[in-house]
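Hello support,

Our group uses your service weekly, and this is the first time we've seen a run hang past the timeout. The protein is Spermidine/putrescine-binding periplasmic protein. I'm not sure whether the cause is the sequence or the server load. Input pasted verbatim:
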Amino acid sequence: MVKKIASRVYMGLIFLFLYLPILVLIVLSFNNSKSKVKWGGFTLDWYIKCFQSERIMSAFSTTLQITLLAAVISTIIGTLAAMGISAMKKRNQTIYLGATNIPMLNADIVTGISMMLLFVKFMNLGFVTVLIAHITFNIPYVILNVLPKLKQTNKYTYEAALDLGASPLYAFFKVTWPEISPGVFSGFMMAVTMSLDDFSITYFTKGAGVNTLSTMLYTELKKGVKPELYALSTILFFTVLLLLVVVNINSNQIPVSASKKPARAKKLRIVKRSVSIAIVAVLVIGCFSVFTISAGSTNNDNAITVLNYGKYIDESVIDSFEQETGITIKYEEYEEPEEMYTKYKSGAIDYDVICTSDYIIEKLISEGEVNKIDYSSMPNYQNVNQDIIDMSASFDPTHEYTVPYFYGTLGILYNKKMADASDLNTWDCLWNGKYKDNMIMINSVRDAFTPALRTLGYSINETDTAKLDEAFDILNKQSSDVLAYYVDETCDEMVAENAAIAVCYSGEAAAAMAENDNLDYIVPKEGSNLWIDSWFIPKTCKNKEGAQEFLNYICGDEPAQLNFEYVYYASPIQSVIDNQDAETKENEAINPPSDMLKNCEVYRALNDDDATLYNTLWQRLKSD
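Update from on-call engineer: The timeout came from a worker crash unrelated to the input. Re-ran successfully.
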């Protein structure tokens, strides 16, 4: 009795561990409050907003297309392959089955990277590469479901049908197909399930503007958790659960003759067939619907591929640009400048316009990877403040390659109720232990090393190995005090007062301060980084005319104002500066005064050896 109770408790704890997080997510999807800990009443608003979101619906469209196409094609190929394997001798069967099982046993990330490297050699990443990848990893699952059914069939019945004059095709559909169809359907549904929620392989093989629900969810979560994402995750969970239930019901069906209750078995078959037909019908109708909806955009050859930081442009600016110019934007995001550099240098996607940090642009210019801009075709470029253009000379000395977008500083955002402003006038506050488990550090290589280097009295562009090791040592000691390493999430966390201080960009600080009066921003007296993010046209650009038109549009007064209000960073556009009210002009997070900038430096480009050293130390820090 005790053993039985212990066994049940043990199983209960396992299920609790596995499904409690999902249950919490489901509950939050119906919570009328954005808070994770406070119940604000029942609501379906997040589900409504989920279906109203163009981003989510676009990802749903792509997911549905890839899922159905990959499932159908892999089912056909997998079924034919299973028939071929079943006809082989036992030794050959073992060899081929071992080969088909490797993709299932292999880590998804390894499969994704290897496919990306293969595709890059022959084509640009995009919808087709994702589809091929999904077909490839689905085929083994189809074979695994169909082959056992083929082994259960009586081949002599098929041969008898041939002897009686039936054609091979007729004999197959009349004799073999009824026997293997449950396995084929199970294989199809398994392929649908695998494609529907795949992330790793899709992430590495997708191109610009191609997002499935899983990759879109990942991108959005990096910007901060939104209730709409709870709703989307809940829908995904129940969809996959339903598909798995159908697969298992189908694979465990009981033959009518073996059943003690033929009537019940008949009803069960009717239910299974009805559910199966309904699911397939939804997939087919949905796929053709989204194909029709998206036909206009996918057939538009006049497009540009844009790469930008996350949460760094008002989506309405993209929409209005597309409406006014007829140019479609394929928009991609990244989190760190080093991530952007890796993405670009991989050659997987031909980007037309990129926005990134000053030191990365300097590096790319030195490598001959940047096209000169024809400013004469950009009448709105005259809107850019000349002082900001002059500041760009540190990375674009000839002023031929870049268009300034936003600028600012790196400093400390703090809660006046939870932190003492007098402590924060020096970077030492990050190491005094006073803010243990109450401090957010920035999740970026150069930016994380800046406070450490300035604390030690070194330049933020330091490349001496011994000095960088010193900086690493104090960062490593500090890591146990850090609550989290964030970039885009910092604003939401500080507004929610989940931390006392955070090292962040001035724009993130300004946005947070606008939502919570208890927050303020400071740049410690030792100095910090003065950064200028700019647009440039890379050598991979295929539509330079469209790229120039986009840059000209971004410099327009109205788009610049919208972007400023959305991002809340210091804008170089003169009209935006002139339109600021007195409070905004006095906000040091938006308009850093000269005394704040006197000890600040602009990042300089690192050579490959120095960049490798920084990245190695950063990886060590994050893994310790």
